[in-house]
Amino acid sequence: MHLHLRDGGMLETVGPLSAETFAGAVIMPNLVPPVDELQKCLAYRERIQAACKSEAFEPFMTLFFRQYSRSELEAAKSHIIGIKLYPDGITTNSEGGVRKIADAEDTIALMEETGIPLLVHGETGDFVMDREERFLEVYDHLARKFPKLRIVMEHITTQGAVKLLDQHANLFATVTLHHLIITLDDVAGGFLRPHLFCKPIAKRPEDREALLQAALSAHPKLSFGSDSAPHPQSKKECCGCAAGVFTAPIALQMLAELFDKHDRLPNLQAFVSDNAVKNYSVRPPAKKVLLTKQPSEVPEAYGDVVPMCAGEQIGWSVEKITD
Ligand code: DOR
Ligand code: ZN
Q1: Is the shortest distance between the CB of 273 and ligand 1 below 6 Å?
Q2: CA distance 218 to 6
Q3: 92 lines ligand 1 (CB under 6 A)
């Protein structure tokens, strides 16, 4: 869940890597221009399916949040699993997003009525380490005001967000692999590591610990969302590094290693798959992935995209995939 596949040549490079080991993914709409019309969304879905070349991979589509009319929402409903709200300019390709939540509420009310979930990039324009924490009051407000609206706090990074999850029945969340592993120290505590730079930025050890405990215990309202976000090497290793960590091809192996290290392998299936299926109400095709405790080496690059942990060894491998 929560995947950036981009378009064109980049989609051709990264699409098959997700389609191989995952049965489905929630596809983010932050293309340039954004996917904010049903026709664009359907055409994008076709391009994804053509690039992925796999029957056993379902792209669950989303629209980019803007003011939508009731008829637009009704027409889109059976083709999308949610609408993704980005605050204007908060991250990669989010220009044209929401400036004031109050201005979004007419559409949010229609989404509640039509039963379309709201997926949110929850950050304000405050100091970078406080952006998610400050946004929690927005989640709290929306969850109370729209009790029938399903709200997914995408890629949470703070202890506060984990706590909020238990306070509203209609609030769900995803967490990435990297936010379970790194803190800001890994990004900027020594040499700057551009391939770990993302939004929301990795936080403090206590935040990582809260996220990790929630993931390892397979908290039923939390699921894995990789937020795998590829950028060409030239856009990462430069002055003005783009935000995004590319993890799609190594995510399952690294999650297996992490859950094994903490003796929680039995909870991996719920965290990666079962919780996601319930929380997003999606039905991916059947797929079995056999993971084994055999070391594998992370490639230096996939095309011109450098993955997290490039060139390093992981303790686990994908041995076999069956439909
Ligand atoms: O780091 C990020 N990269 N965070 C996002 O929210 C967007 C993503 C991207 O599209 O590159
Ligand atoms: Zn994302």
Answers
A1: no
A2: 29
A3: yes
Report the separation in Å between the CA atom of 296 and the middle of ligand 2, taken as the mean of its atom positions.
27
The active-site residue, picked from 227, 263, 274, 323, is: 227
Q: Is 30 in the pocket of ligand 1 (CB under 6 A)?
A: yes
CA angle, 121 then 8 then 200, to 5°: 20
Ligand 1 contact via 97 beta carbon (within 6 Å)? no
Buried b (16+ CB within 10 A) or exposed e, 155-183: bbbbbbbbebbeebebbbbbbbbbbbbbb
Would you give the distance in Å from CA 151 to the centre of its chain? 14
Distance 22 CA to ligand 2 centre (A): 17
Beta strands in 211-303 (DSSP E): 222-224, 288-292, 296-297
Residue 227 is among the residues annotated as catalytic for this protein: yes
Domains of the chain: 8-286 (3.20.20.140)
Enter the pTM of the model: 0.97
Alpha carbon distance 251, 32 (integer Å): 26
Atom 7 of ligand 1, nearest CA residue: 92
For residue 200, the ligand closest to its alpha carbon is 1
281: left (phi over 0), alpha (psi -120 to 50) or beta: left
Token pair recorded at residue 101: 């939540």
CA distance 91 to 216: 28
pLDDT tens, the chain, 323 aa long:
999 999 999 999 999 999 999 999 999 999 999 999 999 999 999 999 999 998 899 999 999 999 999 999 999 999 999 999 999 999 999 999 999 999 999 999 999 999 999 999 999 999 999 999 999 999 999 999 999 999 999 999 999 999 999 999 999 999 999 999 999 999 999 999 999 999 999 999 999 999 999 999 999 999 999 999 999 999 999 999 999 999 999 999 999 999 999 999 999 999 999 999 999 999 999 999 999 999 999 999 999 999 999 999 999 999 999 98
